[in-house]
Design a protein that fits this description.
The protein is an alpha/beta fold. It has 2 domains: 223 residues, Aminopeptidase; 85 residues, Peptidase M42, domain 2 (Elongation Factor Tu (Ef-tu), domain 3, Beta Barrel), CATH 2.40.30.40. The protein has 8 helices and 18 strands. α6 links the parallel β14 and β15. It is globular. It starts with a helix and ends with a helix.
Length: 328
């Protein structure tokens, strides 16, 4: 198996919903070969280079999931969603409940149609196989533990890769790969590599970072939700995507043209598109940075079957490296 795919599976397999990114951060730190800092909110930051101009390249560590809000008398668990996703993916899902004592397997079952036609999202529960509240609590379950959808990796037709939490673990991996490529270069700008927290619930980590660091240019490495009439011709497999407009910001048109010229010079495929949602880059823009989200088209975003092209990921890493070494 491709080493990049192996690393991607490893990163996607780690659990870490918004506010509980510690396992992801710990794995990233293990892989770093340069000095780093962890700030007060949990962002992981590496600083390279020197110069008046500052560049931030960001990817978020958190994923969508569930927070445990209580344990019922029958041993099932109540929960609320963390991050935005369609309620339809909950029913019938296999989940992993993360406690301080370890990982527990669970399912979100529904009453079969033989017995009821009135199933609602509000009465869904996580079943971890316990018969009482005391039994569940004895396994270590408590309020503020969390659950993620159980993760399965699938390589489709040799090119496409599907797995839960590709958003934004492919971005986390891309930053690692680019960092390893440029760490020994003589960089004429100050470059911040920032793995952020709590993006899915309001870009909280990015807000904390840019509030305390002056940033001139920001590249948010994140997902581009495709494929619909809103996103036009953008699709998986045609290259990284400059996410020029979403619900949070209109990115820098001037910087877009510079990136496209650089990509053309190096014969790299790049798409330009419009989608929904928001990225950490919009926060940097509010603090005066020129920004463009440099993203990957992701099919089935915020579901257990998120789907990217490995070829696109390799081109993304190449493009981000060029943006740094060629001062774009």
């Amino acid at each position: 198996m491709d080493k990049l795919v192996e690393n991607l599976i490893e990163l996607c397999s780690v659990t870490g919903v918004s506010g509980r990114e510690e396992n992801v951060r710990q794995l990233l730190i293990k892989k770093l070969k340069v000095p780093y800092q962890v700030d007060n909110v949990g962002n992981l930051v590496v600083e390279l280079g020197e110069g008046e101009e500052t560049v931030a390249i960001m990817a978020h560590m958190d994923e969508i999931g569930l927070i445990i809000t209580g344990v019922n008398n029958d041993g099932t668990l109540n929960f609320r969603k963390i991050g935005g996703f369609d309620d339809r993916i909950l029913a019938g899902s296999h989940v992993q409940v993360v406690t301080e004592s370890g990982m527990l397997e669970g399912v979100i079952g529904i009453t079969p149609p033989h017995l009821s036609s009135q199933q609602t999202i509000e009465n869904l529960r996580i079943d971890i196989g316990c018969k009482s509240k005391q039994e569940a609590e004895a396994l270590g379950v408590k309020v503020l533990d969390y659950a993620v959808f159980k993760k399965h990796a699938s390589l489709l037709n040799g090119e496409f890769f599907a797995m839960r939490s590709l958003d934004d673990r492919f971005g986390c991996l891309a930053l690692l790969e680019v960092l390893n490529r440029v760490k020994d270069e003589k960089l004429s700008r100050k470059i911040y590599f920032v793995w952020t927290v709590q993006e899915e619930i309001g870009l909280k980590g990015a807000k904390a970072f840019v509030a305390s660091h002056r940033i001139d240019v920001c590249y948010a490495v994140d997902s581009f939700a495709c494929c619909s009439s809103l996103t036009g011709d953008v699709t998986v497999g045609k290259g990284p995507v400059l996410r020029m407009l979403d619900n949070s910001a209109f990115a820098s048109y001037e910087l877009m043209k510079e990136i496209l010229n650089l990509a053309e010079k190096h014969d790299l495929p790049v798409q330009v598109g419009v989608t929904g949602g928001g990225t950490d880059g919009s926060v940097a823009m509010e603090f005066g940075a020129k920004m463009v989200p440099v993203t990957l088209a992701v099919r089935y975003l915020h579901t257990p079957a998120e789907y990217i092209s490995i070829k696109d990921l390799k081109n993304l890493i190449e493009l981000l490296t060029l943006l740094i070494v060629e001062n774009v």
